[in-house]
Write a structure and sequence with these properties.
It is a single chain. By secondary structure, this protein is of the alpha+beta class. The chain is built from twelve helices and eleven strands. The chain has three domains: about 110 residues, Trigger factor ribosome-binding domain (Alpha-Beta Plaits, 2-Layer Sandwich), CATH 3.30.70.1050; about 100 residues, Chitinase A, domain 3 (Roll); about 200 residues, Orthogonal Bundle (Trigger factor, domain 2), CATH 1.10.3120. A hairpin with a 2-residue loop joins strand 1 and strand 2. The chain is elongated. The C terminus is likely disordered.
Length: about 475
């Protein structure tokens, strides 16, 4: 085998490979020896037919099979010997192949760039701490008390008002006609909260037990049957009961309902809970600042193949968002991005690819890997969000192993981020709730503050940054 470098410019290398026809013939003969025992040829016992006859009859098919394997194996060997780590699938151009001909082909490959001077220990990051305030605990206690209110039956002649609990059955019609799931039994709503259907509550104010009330509303955006969204519906309601609320005193007895001994312990639990909630937010901010710092420090040529793939992924995500908002157009291929959106997609793609390269380098240098049990735990965590659909989702991943492997992206990213947090130069920062809100809402270049994408197609090569 002869290998020559035709050109090497930037990240792209063009290699020419020549394999002697004799070596190719040997591989074809070896493959023929492997399969001849299974070939049944009329007039010969299995495995006893002359090789030349078999080659004449099956040689062309074997040639194609051997060619595919030789191209694959040789490409891997050549790139390994040349110490080229491909950023994407190499392109193969066959220049010569056939009977009594050498196999000659070109390998066009784009390699991963070398990232220099990336020292995690020199990264400067902040660790934020937010202490819960007394008024936060008090507000949470009031909310618990509100949700723990007891409701007692009203007198039959008493009229319903805001704050009352109304229990009713209904039958809904659109243009006088029934539709799927148009009936409900013993529905409970608290008047004034407007949580059932916007505008529904106020039409029950003034009703009393055993009344029949007609309520007219437009079906909301989150109505399950999307074809009926926005249509005017008549709800024929039978009022079963009306209850008034009794304020829940906040004391030790109230606290015991939550498994603690007294109100003081409940206050401490709430304080801890609020602090944990703040910690989830500060972790997001810290992660974003780490990625921002990496984005600033890393200056490297980006592989065009990865960049183009990421641009396509983001473009499709942006198009999908626009399609969701466009009530007239239903074909995503007819949705176009304006110039600002194209620039945004390019900027975001560059950031994602650069950060993916940086995180992969840190992971490789420090032997950070996602273990199989971690991948399975992540899948189980996701399945808990879809009760009743677990088997269907598992079957989907079983039939689509590449989709299953995409779960690795966020797991790997988080492991690298945690490694950075442990090894970088940390500055402790105690901040208030107001400062936290300001940090979380501040403009940045992260896609979490730009267009939020709903697809996860980009996880194949770079997880979301």
């Amino acid at each position: 085998m002869k290998v020559n470098v035709i050109s090497a410019k930037g990240l792209e290398t063009n290699l020419n490979v020549v394999i002697d026809k004799k070596d190719l013939e040997k591989k074809i003969d070896q493959r023929l020896d492997e399969v001849k025992k299974d070939i049944n040829l009329k007039g010969f016992r299995p495995g006893k037919a002359p090789k030349e006859l078999l080659k004449k009859q099956f040689g062309q098919a074997l040639q194609g099979e051997v060619l595919e394997k030789v191209l694959q194996d040789t490409t891997v060997e050549v790139l390994k010997n040349k110490k080229i780590k491909p950023a994407s699938q190499p392109k193969i151009n066959i220049k010569s192949f056939g009977e009594n001909k050498n196999l000659e082909f070109d390998i066009i490959v784009e390699k991963f760039p070398e990232i220099k001077n990336l020292d995690v220990k020199k990264l400067k990051i902040k660790k934020y701490t937010v202490k819960s305030e007394k008024k936060d605990v008090e507000e949470r206690l009031k909310m618990l008390a509100e949700n723990s209110k007891k409701y007692l039956d009203k007198d039959k002649t008493s009229l319903a008002k805001n704050g009352d609990l109304v229990i009713f059955d209904y039958e809904a019609l659109i243009d006088g006609k029934e539709f799927e799931n148009n009936k409900g039994k013993n529905i409970q709503i608290i008047l004034g909260k407007d949580l059932f259907i916007p505008g529904f509550d106020k039409q029950l104010v003034g009703s009393k037990k055993d009344d029949k009330v007609n309520v007219t509303v437009n079906l909301p955006q989150n109505f399950p049957n999307k074809e009926l969204v926005g249509k005017k519906a008549l709800f024929k309601c039978d009022i079963n009961n009306i209850k008034y609320s009794v304020d829940q005193p906040i004391n030790d007895e109230f606290a015991k309902n939550f498994g603690v001994k007294d109100l003081n312990e409940l206050n401490k639990n709430i304080e801890s809970q609020i602090s944990n909630e703040y910690q989830n937010i500060t972790s997001q901010i810290e992660k974003k600042e780490i990625l921002d710092e990496l984005n600033k420090q890393v200056s490297v040529e980006l592989p065009k193949s990865l960049l183009n793939d990421e641009i396509n992924n983001i473009t499709q995500s942006f198009k999908f968002e626009k399609l969701q908002k466009n009530k007239k157009e239903k074909d995503i291929n007819k949705i176009n991005l304006d110039e600002d959106e194209k620039k945004q997609a390019l900027s975001l793609a560059k950031r994602r690819v650069k950060l993916a390269l940086a995180l992969n380098k840190i992971g490789d240098e420090n032997n950070i890997k996602v273990e199989n049990f971690e991948l399975e735990n992540e899948l189980n965590s996701q399945l808990r969000n879809y009760p009743g659909q677990e088997n269907n989702i598992r079957e989907y991943y079983k039939k689509n192993p590449n989709e299953y492997l995409k779960l690795k992206g966020p797991l790997f990213e988080n492991k690298v981020i945690n490694f950075i947090k442990k090894n970088a130069k940390i500055t402790e920062a105690n901040i208030t709730k107001e400062q936290l809100k300001k940090l979380f809402s501040s403009p940045d270049t992260s896609e979490t503050k730009q267009k939020k994408t709903k697809t996860q197609t980009s996880k194949k090569r770079s997880s979301k940054k």
